[in-house]
Write a structure and sequence with these properties.
The protein has helices spanning about 20-30, 30-35, 40-50, 60-65, 70-90, 110-125, 135-150, 155-165, 170-185, 200-210, 230-250, 255, 265-270, 285-305; strands at about 5-10, 40, 95-100, 125-135, 190-195. By secondary structure, it is an alpha/beta fold. It has 2 domains: about 5-135 and about 170-230 and about 300-305, Rossmann fold (3-Layer(aba) Sandwich); about 230-280, no CATH class. The chain has a 5-stranded parallel β-sheet with strand order 2-3-1-4-5. Helix 3 packs across helix 5 (about 70-90). It is globular. The two termini are about 20 Å apart.
């Protein structure tokens, strides 16, 4: 009979809520946490999330994640099972808490995938707790577009907003109901993230607090360097490069590329309305209304649920045994 580990903390994101900061903190303090019977496995979490996605259903998405063919996907599944079995088989790990942190768990897993995930986790762990931070969709779009520019995204802000609205990332309450229907509402904790009041450093401390983790002796020195904010001026430079370089490659001469009448440059200068004083990229009022009209119901329902106190995480959480 398979020996079980005591507890699994499943951190699923969402994107742009300090997930990278949490993962970097867990990595930097791996040895110190191990001494406190806590094992953090970000790589195993990412591989498990990819292994859960059916190849024949979402082939294109898996290829974007580096899984190029069904044979590689099958090998990934075996690798994950071996890693979990090895982790659970060690007598030294019997009483340890395992943290699996990956934004890939949040999307695009559906109910069938989540049921499969629950079967796997129940096989290796006595109990499972889910932690998920959620963010105002308007703030998410501004921050997400900023990050996409750094990753060489060349689309317009309007196109990015439309893509976001058509995605499932902002469907917080629906996703909460889906996860809670599989894992149980008493094991799913969705936490409001406010970027105006919380830095990445605060998110890491909050994550430790809700896990009832003693902070003494842990390294927080990287603080704000976990995921540094890009300045608005640098974002403009990236955006111009992403517009001009493709035009040069198409054989346009230099004068045509820099001509203000160029349609791509005209679109770019129109988009400068979302820039404001300071370091952050911001949306215009019309763009805010566009995002809010599509996402406000889901966000408010999740926020109301959080604020009622039924799942308010003012203190710490622990998994029901």
């Amino acid at each position: 009979m398979q020996q079980k580990l005591s507890k699994c903390i499943l951190h699923i994101g969402t994107p742009k809520t300090g997930s990278t900061a949490i993962q970097q903190f867990l990595k930097a303090n791996y040895d110190a946490l191990s001494e406190r019977d806590i094992l953090a496995h970000a790589k195993l979490a990412n591989e498990l999330a990819k292994a859960l996605i059916p190849w024949h259903v979402r082939t294109r998405h898996l290829k974007k994640l580096g899984v190029q063919n069904p044979q590689k996907h099958a090998r990934l599944k075996k690798k994950v099972n071996r890693a979990l079995h090895k982790l659970a088989s060690s007598e030294q790990n019997a009483q340890k808490v395992v943290i699996l942190s990956s934004e890939r768990f949040y999307s695009p897993l559906n109910q069938i995938d989540l049921n499969h995930l629950k079967e796997i986790l129940d096989y290796y762990f006595e109990s499972v707790v889910l932690v998920c931070f959620f963010r105002d969709p308007v703030d998410f779009v501004a921050s997400g577009y900023n990050e996409s520019i750094k990753a060489a995204y060349s689309g317009s802000l309007k196109a990015y907003i439309k893509h976001y609205i058509n995605s499932s990332v902002w469907r917080y309450f629906s996703n909460f109901k889906l996860w809670s229907s599989v894992f149980g509402a008493d094991r799913c904790f969705f936490v409001a993230f406010n970027p105006d009041q919380q830095t990445n450093y605060d998110v890491v401390k909050h994550f430790c607090a809700i896990l009832n983790l003693d902070l003494a002796g842990l390294n927080f020195s990287q603080g704000e360097r976990f995921n540094p904010q890009m300045s608005a001026k640098l974002a403009v430079v990236y955006r111009l490069i992403n517009i001009c370089v493709p035009l040069w490659k198409r054989g346009k001469d230099q004068r045509d590329v820099l001509n203000p009448a160029n349609s791509m440059l005209k679109r770019f200068f129109k988009e400068l309305g979302f820039l404001r004083h300071g370091r952050k990229l911001r949306l215009t009022e019309d763009q805010r209304q566009m995002v809010q009209s599509a996402t406000d119901t889901e966000y408010r329902r999740m926020l109301d649920y959080y604020n009622t106190g039924r799942k308010a995480l003012s203190g710490s959480i622990s998994a029901p045994e």
